[in-house]
Specification:
The complex is a heterodimer of chains A (335) and B (279).
Chain A (H helix, E strand, L loop, with lengths): L1 E5 L3 H11 L1 E8 L2 E6 L29 E10 L2 E6 L7 E6 L1 H15 L5 H8 L1 E6 L10 H4 L11 E5 L3 E6 L2 H4 L7 E3 L2 H13 L7 H8 L4 H8 L7 H4 L7 E7 L5 E8 L20 H20 L9 H5 L7 H5 L1
Parallel strand pairs in A: 2-6, 6-7, 7-8
Antiparallel strand pairs in A: 1-9, 1-10, 2-3, 4-5, 4-12, 8-9, 11-12
Chain B lengths: L3 H19 L5 E8 L2 E7 L8 E2 L19 E5 L1 H12 L8 E5 L14 H4 L11 E2 L15 H4 L3 H13 L6 H5 L23 H14 L9 H5 L6 H16 L25
Parallel strand pairs in B: 1-4, 4-5, 5-6
Antiparallel strand pairs in B: 1-2, 1-3
The chains are: A alpha+beta (335), B alpha/beta (279).
């Protein structure tokens, strides 16, 4: 089903949603937008969303928190007792998520489904609805048009919003999304509106590069080239922490003073860190900067393809724009 | 529009570097190259690669950072702030002047991609080369030292100021980019990597504050205000203001500015009974 909503009505629509759901929208602060839970007491909901290109922190943070307690454990009379932690029960809507980030979440779904299945991820995922907003203009440094992950989206989100001037054209891509189109803010869309979107889609050049092609080319890169790029790397975690598809984590147990109870924490980690691959005894298979950089690029462009048949990069361009020393994943894809 | 002068400097730079390679005076040259996403640092290893070098007002990185990665004769192109960092590194016995060939270029400020001058450049008093082996381009006028840009924050009531900094540090994602890009944060073993001090498990606000404030204290009397930390920060935390404030304190207490003279002594690691009487 396809309907449309006036731009001025979006705030009203989101406020109505926030009565029942936890609504997350891009919120402006410090000259940029970040995804935040709606503050219902505020009047200006979704104001300035026209300026929104994409957030720096990807919306995956609502599915994979920076850190979380996995479970608590204790020992009573010689028996181990494990207490599961209840995670936020409220259903969530992420409004304004861009097609690249929707595709990133679809990738995370595949990875997290592998055995052992990540239960807390799916507990959150099943309660999360994605209302995707298609892009009228391409973000700087993004290359979604070459990977087929944007700027438009045909599946993956629940609702699809497209900016067609005074209105958003809204299409339900799943049954879950369908019911929202009955809200009173929506009007019926006519043929003209659909043509407007079709025109937009036609106007943007997409030239999709084959996955196999990219991963094959990767193997031709010689040691010296990796070295020359890695010399520049400063080993910060920007490219991994702000990547919408990175999911590396570390696990740590914390014990109480008496040693008979504690909890297990799962927290975000980064493969660009020297400590990430360090083994007990001090051995490190990825000791050099070059090896860690190669691992990141290989994981995105080759290991993903080998294992799941698709690229681990969605072309959002965050790592390119935010890298302080200009390391550019596009060079590995296009050159 | 390309500034004609910039092009001339760029050509001259290439000419000098080519000569250095031909005369076998350097093994590697650290400079800037163009890429899809603007100007970035590059490492020239032979004379055939010299044409990759560029020079313009977007050459933002502080190249002194990379000096510690090479154990050979290095040539480097340096703005005032790069040179300041080099001086500090020499003073701290991290690199030796003999193995270094510095091409100094007077600097009128560095611009971001959207053509805005970086805030630290507005108050820079270290625009001209002081220890370079060769200077390309004409010297520029130095500005008077001022800390007026800090007034806005300093004049806030203490509660507001506290809130201001909390709000800044709240956004920190502990990516460590500011530490890693800093040319003077070279410790092999940094205590900010100690996970009992900065806990990546919980990512508490208190740890983030601890991270930034301890870096600020460690760089007191050493920070040369190149602003790399602020530029590297993905969350736009106003680190430049924090480090300017530290510099101001050092200046007011000791009338000392780092990155000027190789013989200058850092007042925080020397003790002069006369000067430090009141301390």
């Amino acid at each position: 089903m396809e309907r449309k909503i006036k731009k001025e009505e979006i705030g009203k629509f989101l406020r109505r949603l926030s009565e029942k759901y936890e609504v997350i929208i891009p919120t402006e602060f410090n000259d940029s937008f970040e995804f935040r839970v709606i503050n219902r007491n505020k009047n200006e909901i979704a104001d300035g969303i026209e300026k929104f290109s994409n957030s720096k922190i990807p919306p995956k943070k609502f599915l994979i928190p920076e850190s979380e307690i996995a479970f608590e454990f204790s020992e009573i009379d010689g028996n181990a007792i494990i207490k599961e932690i209840n995670i936020d029960k409220r259903e969530r809507i992420i409004f304004g998520i861009r097609p690249c980030d929707v595709n990133a979440i679809l990738l995370l779904d595949i990875v997290k489904k592998e055995k052992p299945k990540d239960l807390s991820y799916f507990k959150r995922r099943e309660r999360t609805l994605l209302f995707s907003l298609e892009c009228n203009t391409l973000c700087k440094n993004s290359f979604c048009t070459s990977l087929g992950t944007g700027p438009f989206i045909e599946s993956g989100a629940d609702l699809r919003f497209t900016d067609i001037g005074d209105y958003y054209l809204v299409k339900a891509l799943t049954d879950n999304g369908e019911k929202f189109l009955n809200f009173p803010e929506f009007e019926n869309a006519d043929k003209k509106d659909k043509i407007l979107r079709d025109k937009m889609v036609k106007n943007i050049d997409t030239k999709i590069i084959g996955h196999e092609e990219i991963s094959e080319k990767l193997e031709e890169i010689d040691e010296e080239y990796w070295d020359s790029i890695a010399t520049r790397c400063i080993e910060c975690y920007i490219c991994t922490l702000l990547c919408p598809t990175c999911y590396c984590f570390n696990v740590f147990d914390t014990l109480s003073v008496f040693g008979n109870s504690g909890h297990r924490i799962i927290f975000q980690d980064s493969c660009m860190s020297r400590d990430f691959s360090r083994l007990a005894g001090g051995e490190n298979p990825r000791r050099e900067r070059r090896e860690r950089l190669r691992n990141r690029i290989y994981h995105k462009l080759k290991y993903f393809v080998d294992r799941y048949g698709r690229l681990g990069c969605t072309g959002c361009g965050r790592c390119v724009s935010l890298c302080p020393v200009g390391i550019d994943i596009r060079e590995f894809i296009f050159e | 529009m390309i500034n004609m002068k910039e092009i001339e400097i760029e050509n001259e730079l290439r000419r000098v570097v080519r000569r250095l390679f031909l005369e076998k005076r350097i093994d590697i040259f650290i400079g800037f190259e163009d890429s899809l996403n603007g100007v970035r640092p590059c490492f020239i290893k032979s004379v055939d690669e010299v044409d990759r070098l560029v020079w313009n007002k977007f050459c933002k990185n502080n190249l002194a950072l990379y000096l510690l990665r090479f154990d050979c004769r290095v040539g480097i192109v340096a703005k005032g702030c790069d040179e300041g960092a080099i001086i500090e590194l020499i003073k701290e016995n991290q690199i030796s002047r003999e193995n270094l060939y510095i091409i100094g270029i007077p600097c009128n400020g560095i611009y971001s991609e959207d053509n805005k001058i970086y805030s630290v450049c507005k108050t820079c008093t270290r625009r001209n080369p002081l220890i370079a082996d060769i200077i390309i381009g004409e010297l520029v006028d130095e500005k008077d030292m001022t800390f007026d840009d800090l007034k806005e924050i300093e004049d806030m009531p203490i509660k507001d100021r506290f809130r201001f900094w909390i709000r800044e540090f709240e956004n920190c994602i502990l990516c460590y980019a500011c530490r890693n890009i800093c040319p003077l944060c070279y410790c092999n073993e940094c205590y900010l990597d100690r996970r009992d001090l900065i806990d990546l498990r919980e990512r508490n606000l208190s740890d983030k504050i601890f991270f930034h404030l301890s870096r600020a204290i460690h760089l007191a009397g050493r920070c040369i205000e190149c602003g790399e930390c602020e530029r590297a920060c993905p969350m736009n935390i106003k680190l430049g203001k924090l480090f300017r404030k530290i510099s101001k304190e050092v200046w007011e207490l000791f009338e000392y500015k780092p990155g000027i003279g190789i013989e200058d002594k850092n007042p925080l690691i020397t003790f002069d009974p006369k000067r430090d009487e009141e301390l």
